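Intended use. Records like the one below are meant for learning the mapping from a protein sequence to its folded structure. Do not use them to infer anything beyond what is encoded.
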Amino acid sequence: MGDYSKALEFYEKSLEIRKKALPSNHPDLATSYINIGGVYSNMGDYSKAREFYEKSHQIFEKTLPSNHPSLATSYGNIGQVYNNMGDYSKALEFYEKDLEITKKAMPSNHPDLAVSHLNFAACYEKMGDYTTALKALKNAYQIQQKAFEEGNPAFASTYSRFGRVYRNMKDYSKSLDYFQKCLAIFQRTLPERHPNLAITYSNIGDVHRLMGDYEKAISFHQKALNIQENVQCNPLECATTYINLGETYRQMKDYTTALTYYQKGLEIRENKLPKSHPDLAVVYHNLAKLYLSTRQYNMAMKNVQQAVEIAQEKLPSNHPHILEYKETFEKIRKKM
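Structure written out for the chain above:
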C-alpha cells in the first residue's frame, strides 16, 4: 500500500546501522541501497532511484561472480529506471545484460526469465515497436504458464502489458479483455485502494474512451482518482489519469474541463521528468489538438513544435507518435 516516507525512513535508519557495522562492499549494504532505490522509483523520483541502484550495482560487481542472478536483477533495476526516464536505448542495453546472465544462470522456465522478457516488452512498447513487444510478452507468458497456476498474481502485470500493446495496435476489444483479466487478479489479491488497482481502472477507462464510450471512460478514471488522490502513490500515475481524463473531455468538446486536467497532469510530469521525456510530448500534442479545436493557432503551433522536437530527439524515426505529431503540425500550419 506504500507509505513511502515511512518506508524511506525505516530503510535509511537500517542503512546507517549497516554502514557503521559492515565493510563498505558488504552485500547487506547493497540490499539497503536496492530497497531505498525501489522506494524512490515508486515515488517517481527516478534520478534518485538510479543513484541508489548504481551504488548497489558497484558492490555486486566487486563481490559477485559475473554470472550471478543478483547482478542480472541489478541490471534490470537500472534498465527500468532508464525506461521510466524515457531513455529507451539505454534501458535496452541494461535489459540485454540482465537477460544474458539470467539465461545462463536459470533454467529455461524460471520466473526471473519471464521478468526479463516483460522488461523488454515494456521498452519496445514505449519505442513504438509493438510486434517485438508482443513477441517478448508471449515469451514471458509461456514461461509463467509453466511456472504458475492460472490466476497467480504474477500474471497481472503480463495481462496489463498485453492490454497496453493491443491498445496501441488499436485492437480495443482484445486490450479491454486483458485489462479486465488483470483487474480480476488485483481485485482478488490487493486491498481495495491499492495504487495498482487505480492504474488498471485508468487503463480500462482509456480503452473505453478510444471506443467512444465517454461516460464509461469518465467513471473508470474517477474510480482511479478516488484511489490516487487519497493514498500515497506514484504522482506520475495520477498524472496519467488526469491526462486520460483531459483527452476524454477534449473528445467530448468540453475544452475548459479538458484544459484543467491537462494542466494538472502536465504540472506533475514537468516536475518529475527530464525536459525531453516522450511522456511530455504526449501532453504537448494533446494541448496542440485542443488549441487547434478552439482556433488558438499560435498556442497550438507552440505545443505541437515542442512535441515534435522531443519525439524526434527521443523516439525511433518510425514511431507512430512522430507521424501523428507531424500530421497535427500540418493541420495547424494550414490554418495559420
